[in-house]
Fold:
Amino acid sequence: MGESCGNATKAAKAAGYRGSPDTLRTVGAENLAKPNVRQAIEQRQENDPLVLNREKLQVLWSNIANDETVSMTHRLKATELLARSKAMFTERQIVEKAPGPTDDEKREMMRPLLGDPEALDSLDRILKKLNGDFRSGTN
Structure:
């Protein structure tokens, strides 16, 4: 991977950029966002035998899991990692948001706090304005 070992800040410095560590970190992050830089990194990783991509890891874990000479602890860990890499433990749940309180319920909740009829009228005007803003998109 080179002398920077995957560190964008070190890579920016090695490429000749100058500045404080914060500046070099920013430059490194900006460089990683560039498509040609990202493509070059991915290509190097594909060609580097020391870099294991997902497919290589899955083959490795499969080999360990199937190797009867390996301890059961390691075989079980390999099967767990393999299953996780394939999202086999992902449980999807649909979460529905409960509807919020109505304006009347909001008024009732605020009544003990406000007590003053004028304050309740002000709250009423605010709620109407907010509802108007959200519903019609006007101020």
Observations:
- Residues 8 and 30 are 9 Å apart (CA to CA).
- The first helix runs from residue 8 to 14.
- The radius of gyration is 29 Å.
- DSSP finds seven helices and no strands in the chain.
